[in-house]
Amino acid sequence: MMRRMRWAEDGGGTWELDMEAPVTMEGAARAVPGDPLPLGLSRGRRITRPKQLDFMHRFMSSPLVPSFSGYPTNGGQGLLFYHAYTSHLAENWCATILQQINVQKFLPFIKEISANHLKEIPWPKTICKHFAQIFSWGLGTEFLLTQDSSFLVEFYNVQKNTRGKAVFNQKLRGHNLTLETAWPGLFVDRSGTYWDVPLSMAIDFASVSSDSGLSYHFCLQHNSGKPKHFGGNETTRIPSSLLPGLCARAALSFKNNFFFWKKKDGKLKMVQPYDLLLSDPHISASGVIGTVASVSLGDCSARFSDEERLHLQASNAFRICAQRNNLAAFVDFFASLSTSAQYGNFQRPFLDLTRLNAQMHFPSGSSFLSGVAGLAQNLYNSQELNLEQLGAVCPELTLSLQQQIIGPFSFRVDSRILFTPSERNKVAQVEESVFAIDWALKVLGSAKATAWYSPRRQEAMVELRFFER
Question: Which of the 8 DSSP states describes residue 23?
Answer without folding.
Answer: T
